[in-house]
Design a protein that fits this description.
The protein is an alpha/beta fold. The protein is built from 11 helices and 8 strands. The chain has an 8-stranded mixed sheet. Helix 1 packs across helix 2, helix 7 crosses helix 9 and helix 10 crosses helix 11. The chain binds 3-hydroxybutanoyl-coenzyme A.
């Protein structure tokens, strides 16, 4: 029978980490949410506040439930506070050296049976597992943006992940109200491997001035019934995150579909990171907002 995980940690409170912390706390788990600096911690907290306030405004949550969610999240700037966690989900930026550093630290701090999960969307879970002394307890738990809304969790098992760890994480995903799919460790897993070739192609179409951003997005929304056009979705995902994912997939597969369109790197360098910075393919009323100006 699956182990019920109740004490969990999240490391990194960017768009994904903050969303994951919210999902866990909404499901009644006790969450320790860790960021490196007080500033980053305040931004992570503000992200959860914005999301839960929106749910209250829409009548999906009452104020008491929102307060209870915040009581279940302990915000901290020290990884040492994860010493009692049964599961830690890492959601720091998509760079191997950063994630490896976090995993090596967690390995020292957490008890040997703590499950270490990564929310990576393209890096090798196996490579991360071997920086720890517990590769069999390392797994991928890949959420989708916005985490409180999107139903899928990809559970990524390596060749050494213990079957009981897979079961525990699958059971947790279901408790969070998500649908899980379990797959092996390959860059992009299922969803990103299929999605990012399409997104990259849409960017190339825009870059080559074949069509306007509005027309590309309208074509996919209205012609194919997608909730968002590809350029608006790039802004939601974050241009830097999208670049890292494409670059990793391209390096692994050498499939030209995934060779990042040049403008993506240029936008990243110029700080046009999408919604989170206030400007990407579109401009937004304020950083983080969904309102296009
Ligand atoms: N955080 C929390 N909740 C949010 C949110 C956010 N950022 N954005 C929207 N929501 C909630 C709203 O509160 C609303 O909730 P309700 O139905 O309970 O009232 C619901 O989502 C619908 O929102 P809206 O009515 O404002 O807007 P839409 O109907 O246009 O939905 C959307 C917004 C859910 C973002 C929708 O456009 C969508 O599904 N877009 C596609 C998203 C997608 O493809 N994500 C995957 C990206 S790839 C990825 O994440 C992988 C990673 O590795 C990069």
């Amino acid at each position: 029978m699956a182990r019920e995980l109740n004490e969990v940690g999240v490391v990194g409170l960017g768009t994904m980490g903050a969303g994951i912390a919210e999902v866990l706390a909404r499901a009644g788990l006790s969450v320790t949410a860790v960021e490196v600096s007080e500033g980053a911690l305040a931004r992570g907290r503000a992200h959860v506040e914005q999301s839960t306030d929106r749910a209250v405004a829409r009548g999906k949550l009452d104020a008491a439930e929102r307060d209870a969610i915040f009581e279940r999240i302990r915000f901290s700037s020290s990884l040492e506070d994860l010493a009692d966690a049964e599961l830690v989900i890492e959601a720091v930026p998509e760079r191997m050296e950063l994630k490896a550093e976090v995993f090596a630290e967690l390995d020292k701090i957490c008890p040997p049976d703590t499950i270490l999960a990564t929310n990576t969307s393209s890096l090798s879970v196996t490579e991360l597992s071997v920086v720890t002394g517990r590769p069999s307890k390392v797994i991928g738990m890949h959420f989708f943006n916005p985490a409180p809304v999107m139903k899928l969790v990809e559970v990524v098992q390596t060749v050494v992940t213990e079957p009981s760890v897979v079961e525990d994480v699958e059971a947790l995903a279901e408790r969070l109200g998500k649908v899980d799919v379990t797959i092996g460790d390959r860059a992009g897993f299922i969803a990103n491997a299929l999605l990012f070739g399409y997104l990259n192609h849409a960017v190339a179409m825009y870059e080559n001035r074949y069509a306007s951003r509005e027309d590309i997005d309208a074509a996919m929304r209205l012609g194919c019934g997608l909730p968002m056009g590809p350029l608006a979705l790039m802004d939601l995902i974050g241009i830097d995150t999208a670049y890292e994912i494409l670059d990793t997939m391209y390096k692994q597969s050498r499939n030209r579909l995934h060779a990042p369109s040049p403008v993506i790197k240029q936008m990243m360098t110029a700080g046009l990171l999408g919604r989170k910075s206030g400007r990407g393919f579109y401009s937004y009323a304020e950083p983080g907002s969904a309102e296009v100006v």
